[in-house]
């Protein structure tokens, strides 16, 4: 099957919209992706025909809802090549998944002063703050990898940074700001050598390229539904089952228990142990439909399309006078997220002028302030692509940047 | 284009040629304010008689032009006059484009009327004004209670 962008775009009703009198040019998929009809329809159908609470009802609707919810879990497991659906914990988003690891794995490891946790300067705030909080609670020390000038993880001090005191390493798979796809093989190997657990923030990678958790050789990954054609409110933590089975709960409440007495509680096995309360049922089903949609296209094909668009965009942006790109300058080892500066114009002003032309980009610090600081800027403008992005849209961005330079020239 | 309402010539002029920029001595109160959603920041210093209003910051054209206009408008005025202007500016910015600004009170700041139609940018325009109010309070001068700023 050839990758037919026009046919794909026809599945996304919002792409027909006009913004400020111009056709919508949506270049903010790293922030949140748009949703195809198939996902919206699956959620509508669930709510109209099959709505009931999961894992507790004997009636038909409850059974149908439970079956659909668990089918979604199995689809997600297969999508990332997990060993079993029981390794998939549904959360609210990536942030909650990472906080879950910080709490439950942190407690399981019984961290104490002298222990070290290693992250990087390239992280989203959601992979920084939970570890800072964990260090505050336990007295452990937070350390981090720097970033090279061309936007890659600086591994020059790997052997010292990850050492026998390191208990946990948590890194971003693909940067939400620089677009860098990190080759983590050396870091994972070193972490194994010293017996540290490894978590990956895959929020930007799972939606855009084939991810195989067993191939990565890590312990946990986190990602979120709304960046991969699914709805908001549903995220995923994948963890190796034997680790999840040893970890204490994160949130307490309904569904996560084995038995409760007034004197004490025993906990359910994973994944239920980590899913306290009624979960986002329709959202999980929507995520399952998104996985079906992506599988139909093929993740290798999705990735190839984005590589082509990224090569085109890097070239187009390099041709706009006064534009400086942050991160890798060629498509090798990077994904379809390109941040840049327009000389002498603040990103908020860039974004405002582009919006007036229907071009939707993200401006600001992208919840990655340390990355911005590393490159000496308070904020960046970011264009990010997905399976529905066209070269015409990149041309519209370049034309918009010409307009920006006219307004502020 | 809709943008003309936002990027008035006056605003672009103040942005490109800011008045009174730079932190100066002497001063009695200083405040540093940050816009947590976009990272814009500003530091404002004032002596208690407002004979100078000095500032320095990083940010978009709206926040930086607003600081420049504020400097021009408030410098050397009494606390009472400042309170009136401050209140009028906050009211204009929160007016969602429905408030008719009084040029006698607001001077160049009337150019920000268009900004109030862009809810995401209102906080940019208000950032220096809120930092100023804080700096004044730290210098021991109350310039009036502005209504709470809604994001």
TrEMBL record, chain A:
Which reaction is this enzyme known to catalyze? (sulfur carrier)-H + L-cysteine = (sulfur carrier)-SH + L-alanine
Record has Transferase as a keyword: yes
What domain of life?
Bacteria
> Is Ubl conjugation tagged as a keyword?
no
Q: Which Gene3D superfamilies match?
A: Aspartate Aminotransferase, domain 1, Type I PLP-dependent aspartate aminotransferase-like (Major domain)
Report the residue ranges that make up the Aminotransferase class V domain in this protein. Answer: 25-397
Q: Name one Pfam family in it.
A: Aminotran_5
- Under which EC number(s) is this enzyme classified? 2.8.1.7
**What does the UniProt keyword field contain?**
Pyridoxal phosphate, Transferase
Enumerate the cofactors the protein uses.
pyridoxal 5'-phosphate
Alphabetized InterPro entries for the sequence: Aminotrans_V_dom, Aminotrans_V_PyrdxlP_BS, Cys_dSase_SufS, Cysteine_dSase, PyrdxlP-dep_Trfase, PyrdxlP-dep_Trfase_major, PyrdxlP-dep_Trfase_small
Q: Which CDD domains match?
A: SufS_like (cd06453)
Please provide the Gene Ontology terms (biological process) for this protein: cysteine metabolic process
Q: From the Swiss-Prot or TrEMBL record, what is one GO molecular function term? A: cysteine desulfurase activity
Instruction: State the function annotated in the UniProt record.
Output: Catalyzes the removal of elemental sulfur and selenium atoms from L-cysteine, L-cystine, L-selenocysteine, and L-selenocystine to produce L-alanine.
Similarity remark: Belongs to the class-V pyridoxal-phosphate-dependent aminotransferase family. Csd subfamily.
Q: Spell out the NCBIfam families in the cross-references.
A: sufS (TIGR01979)
How is this protein named in the record? Cysteine desulfurase
From TrEMBL, chain B:
Taxonomic superkingdom = Bacteria
Which molecular function terms from Gene Ontology are attached? iron ion binding; iron-sulfur cluster binding
Q: Which SUPFAM superfamilies match?
A: SufE/NifU
Q: Which residues form the NIF system FeS cluster assembly NifU N-terminal domain?
A: 7-124
In its UniProt record, which GO terms are filed under biological process?
A: iron-sulfur cluster assembly
- Name listed for the protein in its UniProt record: Iron-sulfur cluster assembly scaffold protein NifU
In which organism is this protein found? Paractinoplanes toevensis
């Amino acid at each position: 099957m050839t990758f037919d962008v026009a046919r794909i775009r026809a599945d996304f009703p919002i792409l027909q919209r006009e913004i400020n009198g111009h056709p919508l040019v949506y270049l903010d998929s790293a922030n949140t992706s748009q949703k195809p009809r198939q996902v919206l329809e699956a959620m509508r159908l669930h709510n109209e025909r099959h709505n009931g609470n999961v894992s507790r009802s004997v009636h038909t609707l409850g059974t149908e809802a439970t079956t659909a919810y668990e089918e979604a879990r199995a689809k997600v497991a297969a999508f990332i090549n997990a060993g079993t659906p029981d390794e998939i914990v549904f959360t609210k988003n990536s942030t909650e998944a990472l906080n879950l690891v910080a709490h439950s794995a942190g407690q399981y490891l019984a961290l104490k002063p002298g222990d070290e946790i290693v992250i990087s300067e390239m992280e989203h705030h959601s992979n920084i703050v939970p570890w800072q909080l964990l260090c505050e609670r336990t007295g452990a020390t937070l350390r981090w990898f720097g970033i090279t000038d061309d936007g890659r993880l600086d591994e020059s001090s790997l052997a010292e940074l990850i050492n026998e005191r390191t208990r946990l390493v948590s890194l971003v798979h693909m940067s939400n700001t620089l677009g860098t796809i990190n080759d983590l093989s050396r870091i994972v190997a070193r972490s194994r050598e010293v017996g540290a657990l490894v978590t990956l923030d895959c929020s930007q990678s799972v939606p855009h390229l084939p991810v195989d958790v067993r191939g990565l050789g890590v312990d946990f990954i986190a990602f979120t539904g709304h960046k991969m054609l699914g709805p908001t409110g549903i995220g995923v933590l994948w963890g190796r089952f034997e680790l999840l089975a040893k970890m204490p709960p994160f949130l307490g409440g309904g569904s996560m228990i084995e038995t409760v007495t007034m004197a004490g509680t025993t906990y359910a096995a994973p994944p239920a142990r980590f899913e306290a309360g009624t979960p986002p049922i329709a959202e999980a089903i929507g995520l399952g439909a998104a996985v079906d949609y992506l599988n139909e296209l093929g993740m290798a094909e999705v990735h190839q399309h984005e590589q082509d668009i990224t090569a085109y965009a890097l070239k187009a942006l390099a041709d706009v006078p006064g534009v400086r790109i942050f991160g890798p300058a060629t498509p090798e080892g990077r994904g379809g997220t390109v941040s840049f500066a327009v000389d002498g114009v603040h990103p908020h002003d860039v974004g405002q002028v582009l919006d007036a032309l229907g071009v939707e980009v993200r401006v600001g610090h992208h919840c990655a302030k340390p990355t911005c600081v590393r490159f000496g800027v308070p904020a960046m403008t970011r264009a990010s692509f997905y399976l529905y992005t066209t070269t015409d849209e990149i041309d519209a961005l370049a034309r918009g940047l010409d307009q920006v330079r006219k307004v502020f020239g | 284009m809709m943008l003309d309402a936002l990027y008035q010539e006056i605003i672009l002029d103040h942005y490109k040629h800011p008045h009174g920029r730079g932190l100066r001595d002497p001063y009695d109160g200083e405040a540093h304010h940050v816009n947590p959603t976009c990272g814009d920041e500003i530091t404002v210093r004032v002596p208690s008689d407002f004979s100078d209003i000095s500032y320095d910051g990083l940010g978009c054209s709206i926040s930086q032009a607003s600081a420049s206009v504020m400097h021009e408008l408030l410098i050397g005025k009494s606390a009472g006059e400042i309170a009136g202007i401050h209140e009028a500016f906050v009211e204009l910015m929160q007016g969602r484009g429905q408030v008719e600004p009084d040029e006698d009170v607001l001077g160049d700041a009337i150019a920000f009327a268009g900004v109030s139609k862009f809810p995401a940018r209102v906080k940019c325009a208000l950032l220096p004004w809120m930092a100023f109010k804080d700096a004044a309070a730290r210098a021991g001068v109350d310039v009036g209670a502005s209504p709470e700023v809604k994001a």
